[in-house]
Automatic annotation (TrEMBL):
Domain FAD/NAD(P)-binding: start-end pairs: 13-330
Membrane-spanning ranges: none
The protein, known as: NAD(P)/FAD-dependent oxidoreductase
Organism, scientific name: Streptomyces dengpaensis
Cofactors (names): FAD
Membership in a protein family: Belongs to the class-I pyridine nucleotide-disulfide oxidoreductase family.
Domain Pyridine nucleotide-disulphide oxidoreductase dimerisation, chain residue ranges per copy: 369-475
Keyword field: FAD, Flavoprotein, NAD
Length: 491
């Protein structure tokens, strides 16, 4: 509806959503679609972290890097893309993808779906009560008839390191919006943000040094993923230091000076900027959790309908990053569709379909969370990893295949490097997890997601014929490898 609800507007809604990131927007959309009057509260920009300081701008920075790397592996094309990236053009395109950090189009969309927007900082003020502190200094009090959904997302979790506050470290916000390429960039962390941003800024001209406390990259994924990404980052010129922790920080000579980094092993390093890519913290410190019996700063535990478990009355939902189920936009939006439908069903007294894979439960969060890491090579994974299968006691068989041996892969790129792993649940005869590493594998992932989510029997997968000569033929090779592992004498 309107840019800011005026004082005389009604203050009672069926549903109130706090936080208009991708997740909050989808909860509001689905609640409205269920026929419920809905308001959404946002203190910054509609679209949230994802649109302005995370997914969208980071992928805009990475796309030219990956396209150039791909082109350089195609004989006959290599010479045409020999030169450096046009940094100004890349940053200008990034700015456009981030909508120049303005949310006008999102406001228009919200209006088109008839959800009221209240600008300001929202806090729970008791059961079904929300108080919004507006930018003008007013407090708007709202009441929900049915539900309040907290969709306040996350911020960078900064470790407690002496001197950190004095060096103005980069977080995901600066790493995705900086208008200038630092000469030397130190990146702390070895997770997804760290590898993607190291890939982007190294290609844009920084000398990147990664300071990784563990003994590899992408530790939550199959080990070969981190190994292949590390190998390529090193070839691109990134200095990766494993088992390395930061002890203290200082910025020399005031604002414009270099960052001096003291390492725990006694070593030292200087950089122009330092990025902390050290995981996420929930934005729950100042949302009034104490007023409903919860602890400020905590992640919010929810059931599979996204309802907060520790609050009586079943009116409070937590959806997206803030619930810590899967810190990914697509998974948060999936939860939002589920939660919106569940809120609608409960409000109308209709049955809630909470059987496994039912319409009102986010079952995929447990079984099939897809993720693509946009590095060169890309990493695409869904479902279990070998380590998770071992931890949860699932009986699985591991099937590995060298992606470079697939015809489509060596047509795709000269010297293609990649790896595929499929986990077969041997009790059920279905695929429990898949990881692909290699150029262009991101677009392959949905086939795996469907196989895992659909619990497609391996026998039926033999009838899903991949087109020749595509990289998808890896599916056939994985099935053949699995068959040969079952019947070694007939191979
Ligand atoms: C660098 C980076 C790259 C990423 N890339 C990808 C990717 O490629 N693909 C992917 O799937 N995921 C990616 N992610 C993760 C993705 O950004 C998050 O999973 C997603 O943004 C979560 O959406 P959300 O709506 O839950 O939270 P957010 O996007 O954080 O939105 C929360 C909103 O709530 C608002 N808010 C908070 N508190 C209040 C309050 N008290 N009152 C009013 N409003 C409030 C905030 O201003 C914000 O607009 C990336 C993350 C990072 C850091
Ligand atoms: N393409 C994508 O899908 C994409 C891209 C970026 C981010 N994301 C999501 O955003 C979330 C956040 O990403 P992230 O990379 O910040 O988190 P992460 O959890 O993936 O990685 C955090 C890294 O920081 C390290 N670390 C944590 N605390 C530390 C400390 N005190 N000192 C040194 N190192 C420390 C960890 O060991 C790990 O290497 C992830 O869950 C990810 O799924 C997704």
């Amino acid at each position: 509806m309107n840019e800011a609800v005026r004082n005389e507007a009604p203050r009672t809604y069926d549903v109130i959503v706090i936080g208009a990131g991708p997740v909050g927007e989808n909860v509001a959309d689905r609640a409205r679609a269920a026929g419920l009057s809905t308001a959404i509260v946002e203190r910054e920009l509609l679209g949230g972290e994802c649109s302005y300081w995370a997914c969208d701008p980071s992928k805009a920075l990475l796309r030219p890097v990956l396209a150039r790397a791909d082109a350089r592996r195609v004989p006959g094309l290599r010479q045409a893309v020999d030169g450096p990236l046009d940094v100004d053009a890349v940053l200008a395109h990034r700015d456009k993808i981030a909508s120049y950090w303005k949310d006008d189009s999102q406001v228009d969309w919200l209006e088109s779906v008839s959800v009221d927007l209240i600008r300001g900082h929202g806090r729970l003020d008791g059961p079904k009560q929300v108080a919004v502190q507006t930018p003008e200094g007013d407090t708007v009090h709202l009441t929900a008839r049915h539900a309040v959904a907290l969709c306040t997302g996350t911020s960078t979790a900064l470790p407690d390191i002496p001197g950190l506050g004095t060096v103005r470290p980069w977080t995901n916000r600066e790493a995705t919006s900086a208008g200038r390429v630092p000469g030397r960039l130190a990146v702390v962390g070895g997770g997804v943000v760290a590898v993607e941003m190291a890939t982007a800024w190294q290609a844009l001209g920084s000398q990147v040094t990664m300071l990784v406390r563990g003994d590899g990259l992408l530790e939550r994924m199959e080990p070969f993923a981190g190994e292949l990404v590390a190998e390529a980052l090193r070839e691109a010129g990134v200095d990766i230091r494993l088992k390395t922790s930061v002890a203290s920080l200082a910025r020399a000579g005031g604002a414009g000076g270099e960052v001096r980094i003291a390492l725990a092993d006694g070593g030292a390093l200087a950089a122009d900027e330092i990025l902390f890519a050290t995981g996420r913290a929930p934005r729950t410190a100042d949302v009034g959790l104490e007023n409903v019996g919860l602890t400020p700063g905590d992640w919010l535990a929810v059931d599979d309908t996204c309802r907060v478990t520790d609050v009586a009355g079943g009116w409070l939902y937590a959806v997206g990053d803030v619930s810590h189920r899967a810190l990914l936009t697509h998974q948060g939006k999936y939860q939002a569709r589920i939660a919106g439908a569940a809120i609608g069903a409960r409000a109308k007294g209709e049955p809630v379909d909470d059987a496994r894979w039912g319409a009102h439960v986010a079952t995929a969060d447990h079984a099939a969370v897809p993720q693509v890491v946009f590095t060169d090579p890309e990493v695409a994974s869904v479902g279990l990893t070998t380590r998770e299968a071992e931890r949860t006691g699932r009986r699985i068989e591991v099937v590995d295949y060298d992606l470079a041996r697939v015809a489509g892969a060596h047509l795709y790129a000269d010297g293609y490097r990649g790896q595929a792993r499929m986990l077969i649940d041997t009790d059920r005869g279905t695929v429990a997890g898949v990881t692909f590493v290699g150029s262009g594998v991101g677009e392959l992932l949905h086939s795996a997601t469907i196989a895992v989510t659909g619990e497609v029997p391996v026998e039926r997968l033999w009838h899903a014929v991949p087109a020749f000569p595509t990289i998808s033929e890896v599916w056939l090779r994985l099935l053949e490898t699995y068959r040969d592992q079952q019947q070694p004498s007939r191979s």
